[in-house]
Structure formats: C-alpha cells, structure tokens
C-alpha cells in the first residue's frame, strides 16, 4: 500500500472539501430561516402558510448579513486557526538548535520524498500524541507532545512524523480543519437562534410589512415553532455528523504511508502501542483530538469514534506490511525526581543498581537491560522482546 497511495483518496478529499464549504452556507441559511420562522410565530398567531412565507421574506433580507458573517468566520479560521490551537495545547515552534533530534528526523523524511518542510512544534503536555494542522503548504505544521518525545525512541518518533506527513500529503488535514470550521459556525448560529428563541424572539421586519390584517387563518404558530426547532436540531446534528462521517480509513492510509516512508512497520506498531490509552490531551477539545494520531475519546457504542482502534490498526500493519505486534504495552511511570544514574541521585550506581538504603522495587532496582531479578518492578520490555529486539 503506497504512502500517498490511492490517488482517488486524495481527489475524494478535494471534492469533499469543496462540498463541505458549499454545505456550510446551506446549513447557515437553514438556521436563518428557522430563526425567522420562530420569530414570526412568536410575534403572533397566523396560518402556517402565511408564517412560512413571512419567514422566507425575512430570510432573504437577512441572507446578505448571514453570508458576510460566515465569510468573516471562515477568514478568521483560515488566518488564526493555528494560533487558537496552539493557545489550547501549549504548542510552540522549535528550530533545529532547540530540538535537533526531532527536527532532523522530520527534515530527513521531507528530503527523502521531496515534501516541503512543515513548521515543527512541541506541545508541553505529558500525553503521548501528535497532530498536523493547516490549510495550505505555507500553514502546514506538525505538533508533537513532550510526553511522546520522552516515551518513544527515534524510529518510533520517525514513524509518527511519517504518519502526519501522509495526512498532509493526502489532504486529510485540510479536510479536517474545514470540518471543524463548519461545526464551529453551525454551533455558533444554532446557539444564537436558541438564545433568541428563549429570550422572546426577534424579527427582521420583512414578513409582516404587508400588515397583520392580511393574515388569513390562525393556529399555525405552534406547528411553525415545531418545524423551526426541528430544522435547528437537524442542522446542528449535521454539523457534528460531518466531523464523525469523515472516513476512518484515513488513519489506515496514514499508517501505511508512515511504513512506506520509514520502511519500518514494527516502529509504527510500537508507536501505536505506546500511544494507546495515553493520548488524552486534557486541554484540547474534541475537534483537536480528532486530528491526533490516536483519539481515546470514543462515541456512543463506538459508532461515532473518529479513529479505528489501535488493535485494528496494528492488525492491518501486521497483515499488509509484515510487522510484529507485541500487544498492549506497560510503560514505566514518568520520573518524579531525576532519572536513575543522574548526578545527585544517591540511589543509583553505574548500571542503575540500587545503593544502600534504596527503596526496594524503585526505579533504581534495574541493571543495564532491565530490572534486577527479585525486584518488585515488572519488566519494561514487552513479552517476547530482548535487549536487541524481538526474540
């Protein structure tokens, strides 16, 4: 399976991006019509036909303002979405001098495939995750958490970077950002309409300009309110479903792309297993988590999960790329007072052996290849693995 594989997948993402932008304006106009219908119904009873006609006139008068407001929202998202994400996750750009290990890994991958170098960022978070953002080559960036850097070796970090580069090349990143923008716009308009509804309604002034005396019949206000609320709920739900409806196949393709770039399926599998269950970025909202390598936030009965399970992704790499899956991993806890062997740590010797007075079972109860026999700590290596790799 090629890294940027499936030309049809890339073309499909481009078509979906255009369709989502068109759908955005359609949903906004639906919300405006629903709000106008609510306002007309709350200002007085009338026949349903009359209320629908009045709401349509109101919508036509409000449409230019709704269009301008939506365009402003899209422009703000286009220019400042990365700034807002960085503020949320604590990400900051780094140079080669600041993070030579990470910078060199990404640069080598980009050079090997002639890919423009995206901006490299680090988020100061203990979670194990990474994500890519941007809408065009000048905006693309890859953010890696501090926890990921501390927990993964170079080969595994390289696989994660290859995964994110594949998302960029396949157009997944642009599609996700657009979907998030749409959800934000619809949520904003939906909340605005509901607030106006509960505060007593609003009128645009067009529907009743012909005079209340021309209204015919009555009893349509209640039904009009029901129709308006249903339209608002449908638009709101669709804005959410748009995000969840994005094909989860994109993660399988990105995993395969990482393997094609690095020629190392085992590194991608080990990275996924280390990230599994440890990727929750507490400060990030659901929209940002959907961009990550793994999203531990699951939907109802997994129906709306944005990512396939790590189990399924590893199985695909074993089946398609010949990798080896060690299964779920237990990682050592983070150090809380200096790593064993550092100057000033009186518990450690040259091989991290315990010194007199060291607490039994502590992190210092280990030799150069792992725990000293008899210590209380379990092995850090997965079953079936030795110091040189898989047995």
SSE topology:
Elements: H1 7-43, H2 48-89, E1 91-93, H3 100-113, E2 119-123, E3 130-133, E4 141-145, H4 146-151, H5 154-170, H6 172-198, H7 221-244, H8 249-262, H9 265-275, H10 286-289, H11 310-321, E5 366-367, E6 370-371, E7 385-386, E8 389-390
Parallel strand pairs: 2-4
Antiparallel strand pairs: 1-2, 3-4, 5-6, 7-8
Helix pairs in contact: 1-2, 1-6, 1-7, 3-5, 5-8, 5-9, 6-7, 8-11, 9-11
CATH topology of the largest domain: Zincin-like
**CATH class bucket of the largest domain:** Alpha Beta
Largest sheet: 4 strands, mixed
Work out the radius of gyration.
27 Å
What's the average pLDDT? 76
The CATH architecture designation of the largest domain is 2-Layer Sandwich
CATH superfamily of the largest domain: Metalloproteases ("zincins"), catalytic domain
The number of distinct helices, counting runs of at least 4 residues, comes to: 11
Task: Based on the model shown, name its key terms.
391 residues, alpha+beta, Zincin-like, 2 domains, 4-stranded mixed beta sheet, 6% strand, elongated, disordered N terminus
Report on this structure.
This protein is an alpha+beta fold and 391 residues long. Helix content is 53%, strand content 6%. It has two domains: 7-83 and 175-244, no CATH class; 91-172 and 248-321, 2-Layer Sandwich (Zincin-like). The protein contains eleven helices and eight strands. The strands form three sheets. The protein has a four-stranded mixed beta sheet with strand order 1-2-4-3. Strands 5-6 form a two-stranded antiparallel sheet. The longest helix is centred in the N-terminal third of the chain and has 42 residues, at 48-89. The radius of gyration is 27 Å and the shape is elongated. It starts with 6 loop residues before the first helix and ends with a strand. Residues 1-6, 200-214 and 336-381 have low confidence and may be disordered.
């Amino acid at each position: 399976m090629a890294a940027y594989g499936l030309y049809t997948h890339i073309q499909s993402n481009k078509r979906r991006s255009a369709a989502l932008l068109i759908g955005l304006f359609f949903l906004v106009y639906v919300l405006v019509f629903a709000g106008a219908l609510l306002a007309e119904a709350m200002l007085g009873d009338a026949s349903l036909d009359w209320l629908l006609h009045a709401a349509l006139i109101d919508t036509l008068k409000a449409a230019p303002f709704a269009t301008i407001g939506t365009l402003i929202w899209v422009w703000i998202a286009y220019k400042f979405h990365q700034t807002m994400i960085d503020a949320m996750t604590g990400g900051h750009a780094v140079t080669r001098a600041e993070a030579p290990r990470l910078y060199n890994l990404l640069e080598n991958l980009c050079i090997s495939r002639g890919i423009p170098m995206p901006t490299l960022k680090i988020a100061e978070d203990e979670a194990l995750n990474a994500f890519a953002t941007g809408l065009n080559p000048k905006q693309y960036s890859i953010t890696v958490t501090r926890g990921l850097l501390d927990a993964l070796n170079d080969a595994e970090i390289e696989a994660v970077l290859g995964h994110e580069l594949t998302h960029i090349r396949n157009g997944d990143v642009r599609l996700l950002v657009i979907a998030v923008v749409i959800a934000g716009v619809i949520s904003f308009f939906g909340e605005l309409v509901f607030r106006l509804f509960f505060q007593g309604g609003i009128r645009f002034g067009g529907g009743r300009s012909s005079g209340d005396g021309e209204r015919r019949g009555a009893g349509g206000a209640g039904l009009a309110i029901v129709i308006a609320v249903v339209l608002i709920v449908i638009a709101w739900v669709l804005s959410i479903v748009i995000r969840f409806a994005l094909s989860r196949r994109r993660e399988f393709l990105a995993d395969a792309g990482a393997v094609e770039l690095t020629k190392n399926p085992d590194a991608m599998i080990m990275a996924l297993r280390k990230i599994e269950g440890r990727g929750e970025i507490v400060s990030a909202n659901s929209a940002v988590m959907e961009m990550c390598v793994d999203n531990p936030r699951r939907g109802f009965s997994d129906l709306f999960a944005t990512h396939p399970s790590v189990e399924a992704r590893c199985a695909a790499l074993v089946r398609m790329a010949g990798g080896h899956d060690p299964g779920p991993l237990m990682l050592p806890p983070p150090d809380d007072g200096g790593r064993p062997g550092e100057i000033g740590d009186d518990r450690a010797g040259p091989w991290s052996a315990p010194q007199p007075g060291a607490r039994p079972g502590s992190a210092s109860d280990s030799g150069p290849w792992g725990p000293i026999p008899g210590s209380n700590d379990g092995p850090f290596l997965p079953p079936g693995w030795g110091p040189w790799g898989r047995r």
